[in-house]
Every structure is written in structure tokens, then in C-alpha cells.
Amino acid sequence: MARFSKNMTESPSIYKKFLNALLKMFIQKIRQKDILSLFGKIEMKESYDYKRERRDRHSKTF
Fold first, then answer.
1. Residue 46 lies in a domain
2. I need a labelling partner for 7 at 20 to 30 A (CA). Which of 14, 28, 47, 53 fits?
């Protein structure tokens, strides 16, 4: 890690890209945890047919 840190001080743009990528990964993990916390808490109507909805959505022409 020390060698990596030394390179970071030599090239601030690489350091910025590294931090941005790290922050993006961190935010994705937080959102994933939020979504997983909803598992089993959302109830769908029994009449809901997701296959029909997908078929109808894809059959529309723009």
C-alpha cells in the first residue's frame, strides 16, 4: 500500500479517479443493502401478471 500511496502523490488525477471509483462502489453497496432490506416486505396483487406487463411493454412501437 505504501508504494501505491507514493504513486498517488505523484499523479493527483489518478488519485481522484481512484477515490471516485471507490466512492461509486461504496454507494452501490449501500443501495444494494437498502433494496435487500425490502425483501419480503412488498406484497403484490395476486392479479398482477409480470409476464403480460413485459410482453405488452415490448410490443409497443415508438
1. no
2. 28
- The C-alpha atoms of residue 22 and residue 15 are separated, in whole angstroms, by 10
Cell (9 digits) for 8: 498517488
| pLDDT above 80: residue 51 | yes
Domain contains 4:
yes
DSSP 8-class letter at 40: T
Helices (DSSP H) in the chain: which residue ranges? 2-10, 12-37, 50-59
- Is residue 15 within 8 A of residue 8, CB to CB? The reply is yes
pLDDT digits (tens, 9 = 90+) for 8-24: 566 778 889 999 999 99
Asked whether the beta carbons of 28 and 38 are under 8 A apart, the reply is no
User: Which structural domain, as residue segments, surrounds residue 13?
Assistant: 1-38
